What does this fold into?
Amino acid sequence: MPTTGHSTSEPNTWQERIFPFALVICWAAITAVLSLLFFKALDESRARVTGTYDVLMALNELLSAAKDAETGQRGYLITQNDSYLSPYRQGLETGQSILNRLEAIESGNTQHLARIAALRTLWTEKSREIMATIEIAHEKGIEAARAAVANDRGKVLMDQLRQTVSEMETVENVTRAGAIADQKTNAWRLLLFTQITTLVGFGALLYLLTGARRTAAELKAEVSSRQSAEELSRERAEQALRMRVMNRELVHRTKNLISVVQAIVRNQEKGSPEIDRYVTGLSNRLVSLGSTLDILVRENWHQVMLEDLIAGQLGHFSEDISTRIAVTPGPPIKFTASEAQMLGLALHELGTNAAKYGALSIPEGRIDIRWTERSSEVGPAIVLRWSEENGPPVEAPTRRGFGSRITESLVARAVGGSAAIDYFATGLTWTLTFKRDRLDPDDEVADNNEAATA
It folds into this structure.
């Protein structure tokens, strides 16, 4: 073949290979930066909640210390027993320590520091009043000290101290309420951001797969245009080698992308239970997608056998297969890449739910998987059935989550059939019915954005 034809197509091929990966790298970088910003905002709101709690606790402890000191003073003046001097001294020391702690907590807030300064002034006057009566008792006697207490100055100072603490508690409670609201808002923003980045990640995966299949088709067309049998044979060998290298590189980078998404959602700090459940479910679904990709690469992106897909998605239940999970093969069934990815996710959801709530959650539970062919008015159809028995009682869920949409509408749409879930008293049953009038289609990776990102 002329050299000019080969050289003109090569630059376009390299551009098409580099561009998708450049998009993925940009997406990962933007996601990392935005994730740091969201986590920082969440940490700041949490720190504000913690800080207000510490201030409220310190104010409560300050009042308690003042009461202890005053109780020790009054007890000593009444009983003349030196044992009352211990809580008196301890209360005064604790009060100073608490004021120092408050100043450290509010070191960056000028208004709060001004309130603490006023509180310290009142504490100092109250401490002097308490200590003065004790000194009078030592120097002039108990009667003189009691006369000093009777002028009600101590009560006035204590009332002012309580009033100032109450005003500060009101301010802190308002601040705390705002910080708690901000914390909830930041947590939900982080959850929404994680969902959006996940959808973008799945879209990038589909884009990469589509680009790889398009490149393979161009290579196939180039080989078919060779003039001589020798050239044709050589080009086919080169094409096969390039396809193997591209498939390995594609799967390697795809799994790296899956790892990036998993790292982003796993390395966040623990938040609400909703976020934790979302993180676990997303991570498990990414692993399921990776298992299906392994099978597709092993089959050189040709059709995937149903038996292989079931074995790949239930591989982590290896100890239960043949003992608690019975697979009864039916007629040979193959799926295209796009069909296999969605059916693999559906089988993963069924296995995960069975392990958590269904037949695999107790030792007596059993699962039967089988598929049969039946005749219908529009031609032969395949019925794939997942049946659970001897498990705990099951009930229909009160709300439909992403897992329910996968096992019903999305997988049915992918294979062009229908899916149904029945919650019998004996256990859950899932049935997928679809036609197989395309037994040997050309396996093209469909850019099914609606099914993958719904």
The longest helix spans residues 3-79. The mean pLDDT is 75. The longest strand covers residues 366-374.
